[in-house]
Design brief:
The structure holds two protein chains of two kinds.
Chain A (H helix, E strand, L loop, with lengths): L1 H33 L5 H6 L8 H8 L1 H33 L5 H7 L2 H4 L2 H11 L6 H8 L3 H4 L15 H26 L3 H9 L4 H29 L3 H6 L11 H10 L4 H32 L1
Chain B lengths: L4 H8 L1 H12 L12 E6 L4 H18 L2 E6 L5 H10 L6 E5 H8 L19 H6 L1 E2 L2 E2 L1 E2 L2 E2 L2 E6 H6 L8 H11 L5 E4 L6 H13 L10 H15 L12 H9 L3 E7 L3 H5 L6 E4 L17 E4 L5 H15 L1 H11 L2 E2 L2 H10 L4 H8 L12 H16 L5 H12 L2
Parallel strand pairs in B: 1-2, 1-3, 9-10
Antiparallel strand pairs in B: 3-12, 4-5, 6-12, 7-13, 8-10, 8-11
Helix pairs in contact in B: 2-4, 3-13, 3-14, 9-10, 9-17, 14-15, 17-18
Classes of the chains: A mainly alpha, B alpha/beta.
Pfam families (chain B): SBP_bac_8
Keywords (chain B): Signal, Transport
Organism (chain B): Pendulispora brunnea
Chain lengths: 300, 409
Amino acid sequence: MTSQRAAGLAFLFPALLYIVVFFGYPLFNNLVMSAQDYTVKSFYTGDAPFVGFANYAAVVHNPMFVRAVVNTVSFTVGSIAFQFTIGLALALFFNDRFPGSDTLRSLLLLPWLLPLVVSGAVWRWMLDQDHGIVNAALRALHLSHLLHPSGGPVPWLTSTTWSMPAVILTNIWVGIPFNLVILHGGLRAIPDSLYEAAALDGANAWQRFRHVTWPLLRPVTGIVLMLGLVYTIKVFDVIMVVTGGGPANATQTLTTWSYGLSFRDFAFGQGAAVGNILILAATGFGVLYARLARQSMDAA
Amino acid sequence: MAMVETHCARTSIVALAIFAASAACSRSTPSDGGGSSAIVELDYYTDAQGSAAWQKILDTCAQQTGVRIQRQTVPPPQMLPKILQGASSKSLPNLLFTDNPTLQQIASTGALAPLADYGISTEGYYPSIVSAGTYQNVVYGLAPGVNGLALIYNKDVLSGAGIPVPSTWDELKSAAAKLSKDGKYGLAFSAIPSEEGTWQFLPFFWSNGADLAKVDSPQAIEALKYVTELVNGGGASKSVLNWSQNDVADQFVAGNAAMMINGSWNLARLDGEKALHYGVAPIPAPRTGAKSVVALGGEVGAIPLSNKETQQAAAKVLSCILSEPIMLEWSKSHAYVPAKADVAAKLGEQVPAMKAFIEEVASAKSRSAELGAKYPKLAKEMATAVQSALTGQQSAEQALQRAQQAGGS
């Protein structure tokens, strides 16, 4: 028993070491940094006086804080709602095998394979107010006036109203493959016999989805939504490339703000504080997920 | 959504990346086996033309001084993070070329060697570049070349419309409005929410007599109102809010803008466009007879502290880069203005397109001279103020008052 236990620990050790070195150490440092008056000078001299919770107080009292939190929430909720719905619809679509479905499905992975900087740059280009293809398409389809009362080009990236939808749109596009792949895997795991039985009972397509697919997909749905939440809440690249947090801070989220505090204002302590607040929020959801997952396992 | 691990590392918390990365990067110092004859140089010339031109300069100086130069290049936004990594792991490069408004930040850490210790004198340099490289009365950085902004215009479009090159704000506004039609705009400039946006706004701000010590002065408000009217009047695209200076140059080259405010470093690229006939003029001034004042741009060379021999070797290389023939060669190949007035005059004779830039640089202001290490924070607030006014979120007054409160203290 004890030797088995020792062997178990030995196998655990490399993973543990990895976590401590690459996650524990930086995390600890970030916590320390958020309690310090950390300036450019501190990097060289190592001298950073402790200031307790002063950085957190400064950050929370900054008018940007509420704005960044609201932006982070709307970005996350907006992105996930659409990524998930579209991902699920596509997964259901590709669950029926038809000629070319595998090829098409692999093509849909493309957004996932592209570096985010590339996707961001292309979307920024497509959303250009004057020459972007998105506005050109809207004009051709006579949809401009629906989105923009004057009927003129939609100021995707140049108005404080439209820039958030624009970055969410980009992020939805980037996130669909992830939802598609995981949900598709979940669908494949549902035995065909259940659908046959449902069909025999006279269930129509909606009823089959409502009473067979949806309940059996729930564990996978939980994973997708929770991972999506954690990944989306900390998105940095997409926003940085598409709008840079602008115009006029309209797309500034906690991540871009943290970056700005650290590398533009050189208030590293405050930047770290914002980062920690974000980690705390993400951890909260992570713990919630772990509990939900255990509950559903116990139930099963 | 970022599913890739690199993104996780970068996004979760940028600040902690410094620690992780600094550990990984500490190998980049040269082995001391080579003694004093090898140095690590760091710059951010990542564009093809600039990078090639700079490599040539380094090769020449390596040959002249006998010092082996190991070059490192990072994209401009990563320059300061890279330096901070180096500082925290005591593995700074031995010679670095960084954007001049960041020099004082770096000098404030105490990581740089005074240039006077190596007999590098500031004689003959434009006073503004010397002040940009000075921290607490000690010179830590000097540049072989500097740059500034000017009005670059499409000769064919302007003459085709019968519009003379504008020299005042009123002329610029009416010219821009007249030249805007059919999805094309009269003027393009950059107003992105970063230092680049501030740097493009400063010529309007300073030329109108405003001062960085008080960014909500009536002169400053008037300047921001003017820029806002330029855009709202249709003379420039609202997209200036998203355009970096490179994007601005793209718009100009593509024929989407008849005029642009941009820097001399773009000239090499414009020269490559055979069908494009461009002219360069000083940025229009608020009124007739007034002079436009631009911000001084460009990179200063500085020597981080390491050991005596390596610092000596770095100083030799820096002296070579700052020598007149190299200064002239670099300025020509990268369309910079030589940092010494008499060398600049020489360049003006050889390259007429540079004349407007040389004229502007002579009276250019250093961004960090007044505020020193406080400049970057104020610069960010100013860029936000410009964006707030351009999007109509706040009036010019409100926007600049907020910037003054947030960044001026």
